[in-house]
Design brief:
alpha/beta, UDP N-Acetylglucosamine Acyltransferase, domain 1, 7-stranded mixed β-sheet, 19 strands, about 20% helix, globular, EC 2.3.1.-
């Protein structure tokens, strides 16, 4: 029989009030509080705490506080990743972000979702869908990446966009819902 955590990571309905999941979220919240309270003259301490929160964080990855997530342990960050102020990553399913990725301020990445049927939502069960963001992607400030989305390498997502479907490699995409405008010229 699968644990609630195994169900969660597999994208199946799970109970978010499960004691193990509740404890892991509390651990993340306590670490986030410490991270978000670090001063700019404490970069080593901030980086140490970030690596405790997100063990799969590449070298030279950087997150500007305040930052928020559910667990941290379900996030993979590539090398030279940069996250600006006020970003949120709801990582109830795996969130994999490549190297050289730039997130503008207030970008929100939501792997968390809820059942469409009200009767199932009333049960309190939730689910997640994994998100993948390729290398060298730039996501403009205030953009939202919805559950289950893949963004191809070298693409640019315009500020304020709502990404509801996969975006191919090497394109500029904007809007709500986010649509491809053109290819990126190297």
């Amino acid at each position: 029989m699968k644990s609630e955590k195994e169900k969660m990571l597999a994208g199946e309905l799970y109970d978010p009030l499960d004691p193990q999941l509740s404890n892991e979220r509390q651990r993340a919240r306590l670490l986030l509080k410490r991270i978000n309270e670090t001063r700019d003259d404490e970069p080593e301490e901030r980086n140490r705490l970030l690596k405790e929160l997100i063990p799969a964080m590449g070298p030279e990855a950087w997150i500007e506080p305040p930052f928020y997530c559910d667990y941290g342990s379900n996030i993979v960050l590539g090398d030279k990743f940069f996250c600006n102020f006020n970003c949120v990553i709801l990582d109830v399913a795996p969130v994999t972000i490549g190297s050289g990725v730039l997130l503008g301020p207030a970008v929100q990445i939501y792997a968390a979702t809820h059942p469409l049927k009200a009767s199932v939502r009333r049960s309190g069960l939730e689910l997640g869908k994994s998100i993948e963001i390729g290398d060298d992607v730039w996501i403009g400030g205030g953009a939202i990446v919805c559950p289950g989305v893949r963004i191809g390498a070298r693409s640019v997502i315009g500020a304020g966009s709502v990404v509801t479907k996969d975006i191919p490699e090497g394109v500029v995409a904007v809007g709500n819902p986010c649509r491809v405008l053109r290819e990126v010229e190297e």
